[in-house]
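lol so apparently i was supposed to do this last week
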Amino acid sequence: MTALHSLRTENLVSGYGRTTIVDGIDLDIPSGSISVIVGANACGKSTLLKTIARLLPAQSGAVLIDGKGIGQIPTKELARTLGLLPQQPVAPEGIVVADLVGRGRHPHQKLFRAWTAEDDRAVTDALSVTGVLDLADRAVDELSGGQRQRVWIAMALAQETDILLLDEPTTFLDVSHQIEVLDLLADLNASRGTTIVMVLHDINLAARYADHLFALKGGRLVASGPPADVVTSELVRQVFDLDSLVIADPVSGTPLVLPRGRHRVLPPATTPEPLENTGEPDER
Ligand SMILES: Nc1ncnc2c1ncn2[C@@H]1O[C@H](COP(=O)(O)OP(=O)(O)OP(=O)(O)O)[C@@H](O)[C@H]1O
Ligand SMILES: [Mg+2]
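anyway here it is w/ magnesium ion bound
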């Protein structure tokens, strides 16, 4: 198991030009756990992850790794500690899978030092756990959306960082590959103690896989805590402006959100009992 780094933000404000999107967020990411950020489209989730990964400067406040502002950490050292899979990564034209995944090893290569057997091992491991080893020689731009997404995840894994940020890693994946990727990240967390912070759109998968949930609305943190405490129909209304029933997921026991749309809804008497909440979300 690798050493665990701590990650938190302090009154973090960031955005684009003069526009503020992330509006004063204190995140205390539990080390060695899986944290999931949820929230409606455009509430600032990607902006938050990009600021944490130093791809976007903070307008004020701080991102702290082991108590040190990320601005003070040398680039390669930061890249060996924290990796980000962005929401819409762009591959260099014509690059083949193995070379793209190999780019994840750059932070580990010293100046003038060539590729090592250790780099080979990391790339092969990453390709095989994500199930894309047989695509190693294919051009990335010829792959299906789901294959490509697994290749990007492989690149993030090859970086072998203690902290892994993933912005919607299950996009483009069919249901079985979604579960496969989330199980893979849970394995990585269990075996290496990797701190995982990801944005997921599927609130039910978020509730199932998160140790800790952060809910954002309008660039602010509105709830934080274990899914069983945080995911309630009130929260779903507050965050997504959606009427829903929250029951216990019969597979995992975690909260399961059943949206009530305007159509195809049974009369109230025939719907299951709502889930009893086990506690109060801790507001941070
Ligand atoms: N590069 C940019 N320049 C200017 N505005 C941007 C830029 N990227 C995002 N925004 C704006 O910032 C706001 C938050 O965007 P962000 O991508 O953080 O949302 P999100 O919560 O990740 O949404 P989604 O769920 O759709 O991915 C949006 O209003 C968006 O239009
Ligand atoms: Mg986003």
